[in-house]
Amino acid sequence: MTGKNSEKNNKMEEADEFYKKGFVFGQQSDADGAIECWLKTVELNPQHFDGWYNLGNAYNIGKGDIIKAFECWNKALEIKPDNIDVLYNMGNACRENGDQVRAVKYYKRVVELSPDDHETWNNMANSYSMRGEIDQAIECWMKAVEIKPDKFETWFNLAVKYRESRKFGLALDCCKKALEINPNFRAARKLLETIRSEKKES
Fold first, then answer.
1. Of all helices (H) and strands (E), which one includes residue 105?
2. Are 51 and 73 in contact, with CB atoms under 8 Å apart?
3. CATH number where 18 lies
4. Rg, Å, the chain Cα set
5. Are residues 199 and 184 part of one domain?
6. Does residue 176 lie in a domain region?
7. Among positive and negative, which fits the CA dihedral 42, 46, 47, 52?
8. Is residue 89 classed as helix, strand or coil in its secondary structure?
9. What is the pLDDT of residue 10?
10. Whole-prediction pTM value?
C-alpha cells in the first residue's frame, strides 16, 4: 500500500514539474512546447485542474483550435464545475468564433456565480449586440456601469446603441458621461456632435 502511495506521489510531483515547464514555454509564446508539457501533466495527473485549464487556453490562443480547447476546458469543469475563469474563457471563445448563443449561455453562468463581474456583463452585451438584440445588450451594459461607473467605454457603447435606437436624449447623456470620465476620448466627442446634429434633424 505504501508503495502505491509513493508511486502516486511521484506521479503527482512529476505532473507538477511538467506543469511548471509548460509555463516557461508559455512565457516564450511557444504554444507547442506548452501543450506538450501540459498534456504530460494531465496524463500523469488527470485531476490536475490547472493543467486542463491552461491546456485549453493554449489550444485556443496558441493554436486557434477551439474544439480541443473545449475538450480541455470541459475536463477542467468536471473537476471544478463552477470555475468562473473557465466559463468566462469559454464564453469569450464562442463570442470570438461567432457563436453568440453559446457565448451568452456561458456568460450567464458566470454572472450567476459572480453578479458583480462587470467585464462579463460587458462581453454579454457585445454578444447580444452582435445578435441584434439591442434591448438585452443595453440592459447588460447598464448593469456593467452600475458596477463600474467609471468605465467610459461602456458609456460609449450605450451611447452608440441608444443612437441606433434613435433615443437621442439617452445617447447624449451617455456620451457626455464618457467624456466626463475621459475628456480626450475622440470617438465620443465625434459621436456627440453626430447625435446633436441628428437630434436637430429628427
1. helix 100-113
2. no
3. 1.25.40.10
4. 22
5. yes
6. yes
7. positive
8. helix
9. 82
10. 0.89
CB 202 within 8 A of CB 171: no
State the DSSP code for 135: H
Domain range for 102 is 82-148
Domain count, the chain: 3
Residue carrying the nine cell digits 436637430: 200
Residue ending a domain, among 24, 55, 79, is: 79
What mean pLDDT is reported for the chain? 94
Same-domain check for residues 174 and 185: yes
Query: Are 87 and 119 in a shared domain?
Result: yes
Judge whether 197 lies within some domain: yes
Q: Are 110 and 143 in contact (CB under 8 A)?
A: no
* Residue 1 counted as domain residue: no
> Can you spell out the DSSP letters for 31-74?
HHHHHHHHHHHHHH-TT-HHHHHHHHHIIIIIH--HHHHHHHHH
Task: Confirm whether 2 is domain-assigned.
Answer: no
Residue 76, burial from CB neighbour count under 10 angstroms (0-12, 13-18, 19+): buried
C-alpha–C-alpha distance, residues 136 and 67, integer Å: 28
Confidence check: pLDDT of 5 > 70: no
pLDDT digits 0-9 by tens, 121-180: 999 999 999 999 999 999 999 999 999 999 999 999 999 999 999 999 999 999 999 999
